[in-house]
């Protein structure tokens, strides 16, 4: 494995960051580093397992589950007030999905636009629930210890957003503009990622090589269908390669690789060769010059967790691709 990584041109791991930058392990001269933005504070689980506030425009290495990964999330608003120690309160809901989360041993009982309850399991445990509300007033009745509480209009729970006397919005994380023409080969190469989605079924979320547009790109994509990954190579706005794989659960980490070369495309997932296509064009030399956590023009940003992202300017053998993606 070390020899494989030595031959790569870009390696990103959850190791280092700066204000408005996500820093690559390789290349070490900074030419592969990403631009990062998030115009609000956010929280993460730090290496001690504690919730920690991170300043605006600082990326987050999140240690949920004990292992660090880059955490990129969509915008969300915590509608609960005084969230550190929740008291009984009401909010106005629309006919949408909502997710509730908190730490503690207490209970939130819902009435009005949704009925049910969420029961805490421990002072340091976070419990979550997602439900469909109707339009109107939702009452959350609190008993016992309920801390770091959150209710957001999303189909899944995101990281904790502290509030006091008003609701608070955390802006989305955006990570773009990594790599350059010297670190990316347009004619052949490998794009590798160890990633997990935040939810099994939401919106399109992309990672890929591109030329600053959506017309020339190599992508690994979470589809907006449950547990689907899409691998694609689009040349001059034509899909030369397109493969979709349904996984058991995209919210768990998977190691995936996409090889592209003239008349040769391959997909490996968790050590298994899932697809081979021996036809199709790639790009003219020096076409691809950017590695983005989006589609290439800012659209469909990647929201998820990333343990590793890497690029090779050469193709790898089947044995090497299997080794690279083996859990």
What does this structure look like?
The protein is 4% helix and 47% strand. It has 2 helices and 28 strands.
The unreliable regions are none
The assigned CATH architecture of the largest domain is: Sandwich
Global outline? elongated
What average pLDDT do the residues reach?
97
Number of domains: 2
Task: State the name of the first-level CATH class of the largest domain.
Answer: Mainly Beta
Radius of gyration: 21 Å
**Fraction of residues in helices?**
under 10%
Distance between the termini: 12 Å
Number of strands: 28
Strand content of the residues, in percent? over 45%
What name is given to the CATH topology of the largest domain? Answer: Jelly Rolls
Biggest β-sheet strands, sense, barrel: 8 strands, antiparallel
SS class? mainly beta
Number of helices in the DSSP assignment = 2
SSE topology string: HEEEEEEEEEEEEEEEEEEEEEEEEEEEEH
List keywords for this structure.
single chain; 327 residues; mainly beta; Jelly Rolls; 2 domains; 8-stranded antiparallel β-sheet; 5-stranded antiparallel β-sheet; 2 helices; 4% helix
Note the topology.
Layout: H1 2-7, E1 10-12, E2 16-18, E3 21-23, E4 34-37, E5 42-45, E6 51-54, E7 61-62, E8 69-72, E9 76-78, E10 89-93, E11 97-104, E12 107-112, E13 116-119, E14 122-132, E15 136-143, E16 147-152, E17 168-170, E18 174-176, E19 188-197, E20 205-210, E21 217-222, E22 228-235, E23 238-246, E24 254-261, E25 264-269, E26 272-277, E27 290-292, E28 304-312, H2 318-325
Antiparallel strand pairs: 1-28, 2-3, 3-4, 4-18, 5-6, 7-8, 8-28, 9-17, 10-15, 11-14, 11-16, 12-13, 12-15, 19-24, 19-28, 20-21, 20-27, 21-22, 22-23, 24-25, 25-26
């Amino acid at each position: 494995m070390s020899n494989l990584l030595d031959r790569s041109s870009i390696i990103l791991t959850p190791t280092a960051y700066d204000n408005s930058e996500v820093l690559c392990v390789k290349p070490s001269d900074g030419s592969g580093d990403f631009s990062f933005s998030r115009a609000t504070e956010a929280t993460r689980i730090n290496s001690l397992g504690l919730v920690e506030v991170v300043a605006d425009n600082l990326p987050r290495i999140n240690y949920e589950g004990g292992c660090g990964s880059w955490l990129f999330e969509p915008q969300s608003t915590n509608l609960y007030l005084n969230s550190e120690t929740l008291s009984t309160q009401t909010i106005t809901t629309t006919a949408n999905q909502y997710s509730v989360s908190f730490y503690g041993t207490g209970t939130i009982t819902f009435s009005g636009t949704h009925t049910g309850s969420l029961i805490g399991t421990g002072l340091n445990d976070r419990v979550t629930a997602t439900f469909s509300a109707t339009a109107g007033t939702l009452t959350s009745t609190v008993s016992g210890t309920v801390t770091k509480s959150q209710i957001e209009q999303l189909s899944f729970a995101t990281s904790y957003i502290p509030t006091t006397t008003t609701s608070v919005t955390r802006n989305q994380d955006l990570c773009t503009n990594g790599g350059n023409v010297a670190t990316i080969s347009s004619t052949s190469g490998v794009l590798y990622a160890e990633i997990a989605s935040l939810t099994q079924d939401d919106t399109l979320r992309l990672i890929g090589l591109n030329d600053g547009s959506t017309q020339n790109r190599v992508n690994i994509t979470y589809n907006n269908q449950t547990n689907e990954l899409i691998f694609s190579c689009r040349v001059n706005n034509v899909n030369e390669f397109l493969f979709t794989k349904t996984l058991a659960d995209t919210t768990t980490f998977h190691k995936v690789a996409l090889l592209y070369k003239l008349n040769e495309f391959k997909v490996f997932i968790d050590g298994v060769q899932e697809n081979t296509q021996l036809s199709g064009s790639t790009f003219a030399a020096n076409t691809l010059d950017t590695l983005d956590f989006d589609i290439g023009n800012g659209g469909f940003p990647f929201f998820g967790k990333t343990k590793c992202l890497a690029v090779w300017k050469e193709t790898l053998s089947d044995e090497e691709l299997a080794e690279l993606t083996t859990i």
